[in-house]
Design goal:
The protein is of the alpha/beta class. Helix content is about 45%, strand content about 15%. The protein is built from 22 helices and 13 strands. Helix 1 packs across helix 6.
Amino acid sequence: MHPRALLDLASELLRSVLLFDAPTDTLMAAFFRHHRDIGARERHALADTVYAVLRERLKWQHLAKTGYGALERRLAALAWSGNEAFIEAALAPDEREWIAKARVTALQPLGEAQRHNLPDWLAQLLQAKLGDDFWPLAESLLQPATLDLRVNVAKAKLEAVQQAMADFGWACKPTAWSPWGLRMGGKPQVTRTPSFEQGDFEVQDEGSQLLALLTEARRGEMVADFCAGAGGKTLALGAMMRNTGRLYAFDTSAHRLSALRPRLARSGLSNVYPIAIAHERDDRIKRLAGKIDRVLVDAPCSGLGTLRRNPDLKWRQNPQQVQHMAGKQATILASASRLVKPGGRLVYATCSLLDEENEAVADAFSAAHPEFEPMDVAQVLTSQRVADAGTLVQDGRLRLWPHRHGTDGFFAAIWQRR
């Protein structure tokens, strides 16, 4: 494809993405379906450029002020993540001159907003919480996330999967904390390998793997993944249970649950029961009240802990949405708690960085439900062979940060029902 045509496509795609009325990955998938003539390498360049713009949008917009023409074209040219010679060929001589000057400007000290590239409301909340540690977090959120694998212990051994990756020439090493995890040295197409097709592993962030470990799900138990989504943690729970007992995967979206079925087929698990529910008070939930050994509530949230993967979220979320989400989380947690039998365990988790969705929700639940006794996350993780578990915990609860732990940002609290 001619360089100018590809830059035009990048501008068109950015124009759609920067409306922020839908998730970027959804918009990008639709765009590529419409433009089937774009080659694989060109698709990667377009996608990487869009994500580069989203990660450092405030910096690029600041630099783009000196240019002319459509803003989306200027942003795409500044943040171009493909072949350098290719983009040079797409630009007119005066544009190339402007780009060169803009790059010199980018080397000079920028304002705080252009350095952290976060909306003001979010930057203020995180600065208030983290103090001097805010800047390491902000810098980490500008980097792409690592590629982590969770070995399916019901089918394979970690060493065997590591060797399978090495056979393809791909370096990987065991993750720092999850006993099931491997971290890839780059981002190869691991889902095209025989090892993936036969269900030996799934792609899953190390932090997400730790959430499943918190349940300590065992053979023969009744376990519920209350907000299962596409089932990443459901599959981890099923493997923990060694394909025994009954594992319910609940979600209000039948579409999301449908993505679980091919993953289930690969995993070899037969103890999983996906159930689409109308709401958290669905009659099928009520019939299981007081009968479940372990309930995991990975609640719907702002997703701000995943900004390395989904940088559009910081521009699509706002304080009002966070407050609305926190109310929804409290309702879901209270409903899910009714499933837990005496002596059973309840785990509440989010992939948010904000206290409003994390500690505040957990504290309110503890105050309203004295029949649930808080448990220390460090003790649970240690019993699950997680090394240095204390470094993952704050005030007895899981608190993972991208800049400290190299994972997505996660929170989790645990209770046992008296």
